[in-house]
């Protein structure tokens, strides 16, 4: 099998726009990729100002939205890969430090001396093992 002398180059982003229905990425080589915004729940649920606050990462290999904690690769867009995120994970409140607000509240309670009651423990835990300890 013969191959052509054409070298495949990695596509790099140079510009991004996020509308109400689509994510549009302009590539350095002149192409434009447009995908449905519904593919990326964090972007779809973000405000216009959060969507507008993006930066290129890896010299254009990807796009990062710091306010939404979202990273999307150009390679993934070209391959047609949707986010693996669910609507439920997007609706979970995010703490200002980027962590899960529920986990932060639990840790804050433990630091105040409250006991953590675990109503469901995984049934796959071997009887010989003790539950993991939480370091505070």
Distinctive features:
three-stranded antiparallel beta sheet; 5 helices; NE0471 N-terminal domain-like
Can you tell me about this structure?
With 136 residues, the chain is an alpha+beta fold. It has a domain at 11-81: Uncharacterised protein PF10387, DUF2442 (NE0471 N-terminal domain-like). The chain has helices at 41-45, 48-52, 74-79, 87-91, 101-111, and strands spanning 13-18, 22-27, 32-36, 55-57, 62-65, 70-73. The strands form two sheets. It has a three-stranded antiparallel β-sheet with strand order 1-2-3. The model is unreliable at 118-126 (pLDDT under 50).
Brief account:
This protein is an alpha+beta fold.
Write the topology of this structure.
Elements: E1 13-18, E2 22-27, E3 32-36, H1 41-45, H2 48-52, E4 55-57, E5 62-65, E6 70-73, H3 74-79, H4 87-91, H5 101-111
Antiparallel strand pairs: 1-2, 2-3, 4-5, 5-6
Taken in chain order, the helices and strands follow as EEEHHEEEHHH
Shape: elongated
Text of the CATH class of the domain at 11-81: Alpha Beta
Q: What is the H level of CATH, i.e. the homologous superfamily of the domain at 11-81?
A: Uncharacterised protein PF10387, DUF2442
